[in-house]
Amino acid sequence: MELKNILALTNDGVQVKDIQQLRNVMDSLVYEAVFAEDDKKTALLTLVKEAAKAAGAIPASIQSLYEKMGKNYPGFTVPAINIRGLTYDVARVIFRKALDMKVGPFIFEIARSEIGYTKQRPLEYAAVVLAAAVKEGYTGPVFIQGDHFQLVRKNYLADAKPETDYVKGLIKETIEAEFYNIDIDTSTIVDIERETIKEQQRRNFEMTAELASHIRGVQPAGIDVSIGGEIGEIGGKNSIPDELRAYLDGFREVFKAGKGLSKLSVQTGTSHGGVVLPDGSLAKVSIDFDTLRTLSDLARKEYGLSGCVQHGASTLPEDAFHMFPETGTSEVHLATGFQNIIYDSKALPAEFREQVYAFIKQEYAKEQKEGQTEEQFIYKTRKKGFGPIKKQWWDLPAAVKEPIMKELEAKFALLFEKLKVVNTQEIVQRTVKPVVVKKEINREQTGL
Fold first, then answer.
1. 87-100 helix and 19-35 helix, angle to the nearest 10 degrees
2. Which tens digits make up the pLDDT trace of 273-310?
3. By CB count within 10 A, which of 6, 283, 319, 423 is most buried?
């Protein structure tokens, strides 16, 4: 492809000469970037990202909107969407639907664990999302988030420093890739053996403060990364007000590095991916919406946070989602439900699905737990079927991908409506002013 007619590389960064031509070549440009090798891959992904910023799709922090929500809850819940596979296609659908429905706040995110098993390093994830924005003609702030930047309990208890250093390194990498929203999860190291709730939460709030200070130390000038904390390990017992107060009071005592947390993840009865029955179907989930209402209200009124965050919600029944804005939930994290639509779609060729499942059974056989049926094992493990054979997913023909994207589009439309983010562009335009951070590009590797 002849990029010199479309993009120019100047001392001021990338300039777009022909926006329509850039959209026309974006499919092939982002594909080449994702599947290039080493230095060329880094250069091309950076070029895609810089071209997107020049075209008006700019990575941004949601901090200023969440500060506004902390003062006056606007009646909507922000969807945060994890994309594990077919990332470019799925992100295009999200942007298209958001433009169609005039949605203001929506977040693209990827968790620490997902970065590994989906084979999407932060630079790649950010570039692919921004490429999708360009393709769909989206301009404005793009919220990209590091989800569950978690201290793994067994690693931390064995030797705290290397585990902490790993997460700090990941934070630095993601901020360099222009993730300006990060959720810290040190709830894994809560010590329930301690006598008081504050002492139980002490390691949690102290490590949150240490990692938040690290974020403030490496964030670019002019940007306050939106930072989330967590008090209830998702899948454990439901959170209570005393835990929220102990954690946030403790955090305030030890954190002295600038703006604090903008939101707080709590446990209300869900688990990531849902609970799988022996036949592979999902058990019904019951969310404690009273807990969400009480804790979100408390987080706003007493601490100025945007509210509480609900994880593990994508597999809930559709008639439950309207409850999130009704209970003042500020953000909801959605992942597995979209993966299920892709895998279970009638448009996905049966032989391709079986090829992925055969790969999973061979590569991850050791992960099958005693007493687990094959259906349960496949359901729990198929999230790992995207990364290692990513190219085969990308190479699926349009005749396969388009009907799957139609199914996803209907799901996103329903979620945007239920979460009440339709016609919310104005509040984002008013509260969020993206800052363009210029990045160096290796000219030789791009062909410009």
1. 150
2. 455 556 655 556 668 899 999 999 999 999 999 999 99
3. 6
